[in-house]
Amino acid sequence: MKNISLDISKAAQFVAEGAVKAFEPKVKDAQKALEEGTCKGNDYLGWLHLPSSITPEFISEIEQTAQVMREKCEVVVVAGIGGSYLGARAVIEALSKSFGKTSNVEILFAGNNISEDYLAELTDYLKDKRFGVINISKSGTTTETALTFRLLKKQCEAQRGCEEAREVIVAITDAVKGAARTCADKEGYKSFVIPDNVGGRFSVLTPVGLLPIAIAGFDIKALVAGAQDMERACGQDVPFDENPAAQYAAIRNALYESGKKIEIMVNYQPKLHFIAEWWKQLYGESEGKEGKAIFPASCDFTTDLHSMGQWIQEGERSIFETVISIEQPNRTMLFPEDEENLDGLNFLAGKRVDEVNKMAELGTRLAHVDGGVPNIRISVPKLDAYYIGQLIYFFEIGCGISGLLLGVNPFNQPGVEAYKKNMFALLNKPGYEAESKAIQERLMNEK
Fold it and tell me: What is the DSSP letter of 302?
């Protein structure tokens, strides 16, 4: 089978000749540091060879639990935030039908906000449903997820009884510590472990992503196989010019050094919307430190060409685009002929709709390049579980290399604690008395 491929020619022309190749020694150093565990954040490198470490027995255990949930539930709610849900949602949305149910189990996502309306509407929707819950949290104390799990646990027990609820609540958490682990052990829930050395945004190929994806009815064996093949294709021994992740990391940093501060992830397939959302967290949380890094943004084309197209074409030249292009659609539909031809589109009659979409993609890339927007193209042979697995690992290893080229620790996220400290102080959380007093004084002074 073909692998996904990378074309950087329409981006490399915007940097000095040889600028990408000049990154080769630094890329090799970054790869060596990852492999040898000598880089910043080396205690979070469990994702690096995760695909090749996944055994058939492990996949079988995931699939067996998924089958139980599919048999006992018509709805499964995934409670998690950030990396604890975005990867699973990205894969499920990419592989699901655009309309109607793809399988007999509806997958919902919660625990990723603190909206009272959202939670009230969710609990209302579940009142007459046979539902189960996957609680994904290392600590069990993340506010958004913990609140949601409290509500859903009580509701599930009230509707199905405590004994039956135990069969349809699954915990994915730390091996030994934390509130979620304590709860799972006390209640007797089926549980899976989030490896200590895998950060949330890199956890799609752990039970965090694999269990919801399997419950949704998709082939996790194929997903893992794609990731395994991409792990080999991006290995340290693969020549720089043939390694797509090395090339992606190099061109991104070359563009950044030339003044391109924003990367727009673009797709021409609506099912990839949440792939871009997952990618934004992966790169934003990994690289955005020490006052530097490319800002990750995304657009759904051709839709957003009618809203953001003008800015991309003629706005400030601080951007570059990375386009995910699906070579072969899964369905066939021809452009119809119309006798009256009032819209003037009969010249397209008989063509595949995807051919029109591909010409829109090509025409847009040419226009944007002419307008001063460097373009990277990632070509994906087909939108299926195998190639989504490839895409996941490609972005993960590319992120690890790119972050090290930038000189930051790609595997921590110290900045995300700032808002939490303020929120807990404002809510008068026990232990935050000094912070509560300080923030109240600050607010009074700002009035």
Answer: T
177 among known catalytic residues: no
Catalytic one of 17, 97, 163, 306: 306
Q: What is the pTM of this model?
A: 0.94
pLDDT of residue 312: 97
Any catalytic annotation for residue 285? yes
**pLDDT at position 385:** 98
What is the rounded average pLDDT for all residues in the chain?
A: 95
Give one DSSP letter per residue of 228-274, joined into a string: HHHHHHT-TTS-GGG-HHHHHHHHHHHHHHTT--EEEEEESSGGGHH
User: Helix 56-72 vs helix 207-215: angle between axes, to the nearest 10 degrees?
Assistant: 50
Pairing of strands 319-328, 75-79: unpaired
The one catalytic residue among 144, 263, 285, 321: 285
pLDDT band at 430 (very low <50, low <70, confident <90, very high): confident
Active-site entry in 420, 433, 437, 441: 420
Active site includes 93?
no
CA pair distance 329, 337, nearest whole angstrom: 21
